[in-house]
Each structure stands twice: as C-alpha cells, then as structure tokens.
C-alpha cells in the first residue's frame, strides 16, 4: 500500500510536469508564431526561431517520454492493486477454511467425549451387574457438564475429575 501511495504521488507529479511542459510548449509555439510575423531583424529572428524550434522539439520528446512513463506507472499501480485484492481473497478463503476446520474439530472432540462417557457408562453397568464395583465412579467425581456451541447442536459434555 505504501508503494501504491508512492507510485500515485509520483504519477501526480509527472502529470503536473506534463501539464507544465505542455504550457511551455504552447507558449514557445505562440512566441515562435509571433516572431515569424513581426518585422525586424531577420537574422535575430531566425536565430530565435531556430532556438525555439529546438526547444519545442525537445519538449515534445519529453512529453512523449512522460506519457510512456505515466502509462507504465499506471499499469504497475493497477497490477499492485490487483495483487492486493487477490491476496485478500485468498486470505479470506483460508480464514473461512480454518474456521470450518475448527468447528469440525470441536464437534469431533465433543462426539469423542460423548463416546467415552457412553463406554464408561456401559462398563459401569456391566460391572454393577456382575457385582463388581472396582471401576464404578461416584457422583462426586463429576465436576461439571456443559454444551459446546457450533454449527450443529453438540452433545452434552461431562467433565470428569480423574
């Protein structure tokens, strides 16, 4: 963005110089026309005319060069803006993908915890049916439970102190 601003500042300066040179060229052409029409010292007028014609030719060349530079800088600015927009689009797409993956991970973690709870519950049932209570947990071991938010309703999650 700094480079774009710098290039735009340079473009503005070149456009100002372009206008100044055009004005000088017009003034030179006007003076040349006036000198050609005025009676007087032909030799002095011819020297001044030759000098003005050289200046006009040089100014035309400078204007042509500036036009080329302006076009080149404008292309560069457009390309840089396009690259910035493309980069922003790519970043937004990757951010969306990251968010989607985070949501999927949260959902899968919730499912995983639910499955662990179900397995523990089944094991506790089997142990209590068999009369063994070595794996059974008391209600005081459960600290809290909460529901995680996500794109789909998530199962109830129980946090167990071990």
From TrEMBL:
InterPro entries: Tuftelin_GRINL1A/MYZAP/CCD68. Keywords: Coiled coil. Residues 127-151 are annotated as: Disordered. GO terms for biological process: intracellular signal transduction. Signal peptide: none annotated. It comes from the Eukaryota. Residues 4-118 form a coiled coil. GO terms for cellular component: I band. This is TUFT1 protein.
């Amino acid at each position: 963005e700094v480079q774009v601003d710098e290039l735009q500042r340079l473009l503005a300066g070149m456009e100002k110089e372009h206008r100044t040179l055009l004005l000088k060229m017009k003034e030179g052409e006007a003076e040349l026309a006036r000198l050609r029409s005025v009676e007087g010292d032909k030799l002095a007028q011819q020297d001044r005319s030759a000098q003005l014609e050289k200046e006009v030719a040089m100014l035309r060349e400078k204007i042509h060069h500036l036009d080329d530079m302006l076009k080149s800088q404008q292309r560069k600015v457009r390309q840089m803006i396009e690259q910035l927009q493309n980069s922003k689009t790519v970043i937004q797409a990757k951010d969306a993908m990251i968010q989607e993956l985070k949501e999927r991970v949260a959902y899968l973690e919730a499912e995983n915890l639910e499955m662990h709870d179900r397995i523990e519950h089944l094991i506790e049932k089997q142990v209590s049916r068999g009369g063994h209570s070595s794996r059974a947990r008391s209600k005081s071991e459960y600290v809290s439970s909460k529901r995680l938010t996500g794109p789909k309703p998530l199962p109830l999650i129980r946090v167990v102190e071990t």
